[in-house]
Amino acid sequence: MTNELDEQTELLPLPLNVIRTETALTRYPVHRLAKKGTVEIELRNADSSFRWEVSYNSKYGQPGPLAYKVDTLIVNRRIEEAPRPLPALIKLGSLRDIASELGLGSDTSLLKKALLQNAFAGINAKIRYRRTDGADVTTEFAGTRYGLVFSGEKLPNGRQADAVYLVVNEWYRQVLDSAQTRPLDYDYLKDLSPGAQRLYELLSFQMYAALHNLNRAKLIYSEFCTYAPQTRYFEFDQVKKQMYKLHAPHRKSGYIAAVHFQETTDEKGQPDWHMLYTPGPKAKGEFKSATTPKRRVGGRRAVQEALSFELASPSAELEASDSLTSEQERFLGELVAYGVSETEARRLVTEKLEACRAKIPAIPHLPETQGKKNRAGSIRTFLERDDWAVPEAFAQAQAAAEKEKRVQAKRAAIEACPLCDKSGHRFIVTPEHPRGAARVCTHDPATEERYQAA
Question: How many other CB atoms are there within 10 angstroms of residue 234's CB atom?
Fold first, then answer.
């Protein structure tokens, strides 16, 4: 890494509660994240070199959001804390303890159902992953990941269980013992909703690769919907609304600094989008934590695994220059969304920054006949040429917006003022008007105290 990245993250707090999760299976979906309904989970490629199918038990139902939280926060934590080679029995704790850990209160019935949903989720798969020794291996398996023994029941060794135990199936143990791991912020995982948590898990692969190469992380929208899984939409307004809810907590935390959508199509010609992420200070702090020798929790292996991850791996042609300011990054994303190529957009925000400030907000007001056949070319010319003035329609819209802003400010001042009526007037007594007169209120107590209310 460069010194610049070190300087940017030097003062950032490092994650204090790290969980290391395996990178072989966690990229693939097992749970539906929607609260209701069922989602078919069946992934495969054309040449049959990859397969991932998940079935569920009709009695207990498909593993849902709570089962997802149990798997990622409780089961994964106990697996991480267990010795290697992984034992066949792993103690989870009592149902009450697990419920308390998840903030579920004292009712354990839903928790027990979620545990059973996970235990009966069957996986039929053929996958490729990288082992801790650096070798790429392909493995096939069919079955459940683990069984359960509840308190009071008999364990495989004949003893009575004093808590809930996992009975880890052999194929799952082999993968867990050999797969590489990556660090995640455990406390951050706990605070996220299931959808936002799944985005964090998948995006973390790309964030490590992006920070390693000083570029932006990229996820393809359709692939994210497949691997999350989420409902896939084909209208951008629906996509933007769907992803806004998932991006919001990551923007607030500083994990994501900016998100840009770049329109594309999938292999069937259907609408799709590249989602380009600028890493925020939290992502940089996590990366520094993983790659600092004294606190290495995945380190070079985590980075190498991220670089080799097949799901929407970052493209060199989409690299973001680390010299762009946040304002330029914002303009870049807007121009790309309007159809300008990223190369041209980068040149414009670098060479024509003042024009971008003045004219990008006016792009929606360009006449339809102006550049109708080549909208992106028209936008480039509009920003480059001084003789292409801002459209009159934009000036009128700005004037109307400013007028509305003044009206709203005036209305807010009247509503907040305890002295005047709803029209902004107050009735006062003056020597000239001993019976009272109306006066426009200034809403300033120091000014208004000079006048006696009628």
Answer: 11
Secondary structure (3-state) at 156: coil
Q: Using CA atoms of 162, 163, 169, 173 in order, give the dihedral in degrees to the nearest 10.
A: -100
Cβ distance 335 to 349 under 8 Å? yes
Rounded Cα–Cα distance for residues 448 and 161 (Å): 77
Structure tokens at 317: 């042609």
Number of alpha carbons in the 13 Å side-chain half-sphere of residue 288: 22
Structure tokens at 10: 């030097």
**Vertex 62: Cα angle to 153 and 38 (nearest 5):** 170
> Alpha-carbon distance 305 to 8, whole Å?
24
What confidence score (pLDDT) does residue 74 get? 96
Cα 244 to Cα 225: distance, rounded to the nearest angstrom: 14
pLDDT tens string 204-255? 888 877 887 777 888 999 999 999 999 999 999 999 999 999 999 999 999 9
Extract the tokens encoding 449: 């105290």
d(CA 324, CA 312): 24
Q: Of 366, 367, 365, which Cα lies nearest the Cα of 400?
A: 365
- The residues, ordered by sequence, that sit 6+ positions from 88 with a Cβ below 8 Å of its Cβ are 156, 167, 168, 173
What pLDDT is recorded for position 87? 94
Residues 262 and 276 sit within 8 Å (Cβ to Cβ): yes
